[in-house]
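Lecture 7 notes: from sequence to structure.

We start with a single chain of 265 residues. Read the sequence below before looking at the structure.
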Amino acid sequence: MNKFSDLSHEEFAAKYLMNVDFSNYVAPPAKSFDVVGKANLQGCNPDKSNYDWFADCEACTPIYNQGQCGSCWAFSATETIESYFFLAGNQLTTLSMEQIVSCDTAGEDQGCGGGFPTGAYTYVEGAGGIEDYNDYPYNAESGEAGSCNFDSGDIVATVTNYNSINGETGLYQQMSSASGGPVSVCVDASSWQNYEGGVLSTCGNDVDHCVQATGYANYGESGAYWIVRNSWGNDWGLNGFIEIEIGQDLCSIGDYATVVSATTA
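Now the structure, written as tokens:
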């Protein structure tokens, strides 16, 4: 039992998941760019078997809570921008997912109605950057995105590029490299409603949620799993995290994975 167990599956999906057609998803073209290049400045040197960019490198902001808004796509994108902004040599900074939720309305990106992290990256790049969370805090918990109040004078970071990560092998290569980092992933989270702990070993492939993969455990061994950060608060799962078995592309974890290059505006 957890905080979602009193909901029917239909209520849970309506409040906490997205209804976005991922058949419309277009992966960004392969681009040659240095995603991080300065991770070693932070003293982050991944182990080949066990590493978590959240716990071991402290390259991630605290667990967020999206509330009853299908804004996971904006959280996943913002969290990944935050991590790569830090790994590029900047101070770890909480950024405004509310700006993306309220101001990015292009294509499939529709606030609490869901969207794609790649759309969020494109928006931030085109807007010239993203504000600090304290200047533009999150206010969509009740399920309604507000009007856009973006102030270009408060921009902290901007996206200069983004790229796809291909499959679970790509996830591992990215997260096990000293020039890598966490990865934005979009998954099927319909089976996560009652998750409380342990390694998830069964999952569907109907993508309806976006999160951040931060690490891996026992890679190459029996019982290997991905460490995934969610945006349902730290009172869900394992203090806000879920462990997903490696090797079967469970929940489609390797199918819609992306990283960014972020710098000061």
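The longest strand covers residues 155-165. Keep this in mind for problem set 3.
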